Amino acid sequence: MSKFVIARVDDRFIHGQITVKWCRCHNINFLLVVNDELATNKVRQGLMDMGVPKSVTSRYVRLSHANEALASLPEDKRIMVIVASIHDLEILLKQGITFSTIILGNIGMAPGRKHFSASVSLTNSEVELLKSLTEQGHIIELRRQPDDTANSILNLLNEEH
Can you give the pTM of this predicted structure? Predict the structure, then answer.
């Protein structure tokens, strides 16, 4: 498996910020979208793939197949794993998947969520999980775009609570 794997929590999955800014900034050449619903929805995959440059490969897998998909990739791949939620991220971490960095990019507002930035809203249980993950040594940043200042989620959570 590649030595460079970042995770992004983004409920929009693949879009312009990912394909233009993130892929260019980090020389990402492989996008692995891990989502049970999207893994079987060829229409949505096709729509997202319209914006993926030819230099980048995209693949869509179920949560239960993420570890296998990552293990099968050559070492030269620079991978961004994209999940829709903190819960999905937790599942991947429990499977033993490790990331150099975890980026919280876009988690929309919904009942029971509190705004932590213009693009990230979290429930109390997600806040507690993120605190726990940072205490375990995971690097978790809140950034919409790669040129935004990296803001450690732990600092932001401690300011808010």
Answer: 0.92
